[in-house]
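Intended use. Records like the one below are meant for learning the mapping from a protein sequence to its folded structure. Do not use them to infer anything beyond what is encoded.
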Amino acid sequence: MSSIYYYAIFLLFFINPSLATTRKLQALVKEQPLILQYHNGVLLKGNFSVNLIWYGKFTPIQRSILIDFIQSLNSSPRRTLQPSVSSWWKITEKYKAGTSNLVLGKQILDESYSLGKSLKTPQIISLASKTGERNSINVVLTAQDVLVDGFCMSRCGTHGSAAMGSSVGRKKGTSTKFAYAWVGNSVNQCPGQCAWPFHQPIYGPQTPPLVSPNGDVGVDGMVINLATVLAGTVTNPFNNGYYQGPSTAPLEAVSACTGVFGKGAYPGYPGEVLVDRSSGASYNAHGVTGRKYMLPAIWNPQTYACFTLV
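Structure written out for the chain above:
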């Protein structure tokens, strides 16, 4: 079963606007610690390549935004302004078994929509299996005109595992499964769900959206969702790692902190974030090439709380 990045909780908050008005009362109640249970499964620790399958048409600038994000995950603090993407990713080291070092791997461009413009999970897995590599996470990124089963209705991205081909999976000492993930560009389909806070939400307070840090609402939304599924992949790759709730719809490292980007966040408000003086764009992390990103809160297993960079 794949682990799904659900926005249902986020939307439920919006459906009941009174939740936002009661936040001051909530401050008077001692907040219970958030605990993701470890189910004793294997985590993805060590060196892993992130292979990208670009499905549909992406511009070179769109590809560079997402590539730079991946290359920022394990960058040296000396090369990056703080707060940084790598500082955010280092929280995954606090989960059992040490460091998950992700580096950019192969890239496959499928601009001809080889499987059509409407995909289901088996087709996503088929696309993800094209790289045929061990010690990798294969990520399918779908363009804005590609429909994916469940997209917008219950998920903005997903991750899971599938059986390897015999030429890869049957080598001595290797796993018979590979980890995969999918994230779609929601700009034409559901930006109010999958690109918030850079687009007004479908439900709840209709406050003005934030300006996206790279000038592309759809792709900056993809960064948020890609961060979510990558963190879920390394901490719960085979559905027996860290999560809360049922295994069929788990709350994971980031999805347990949905809607939080900075301190003081509450339903409908992402929290206090940084603002670029020249562009007015909102962000909370720097990448290696000088790009700015908005990253969601991630659960810290040492503090039992959602961690934000700002």
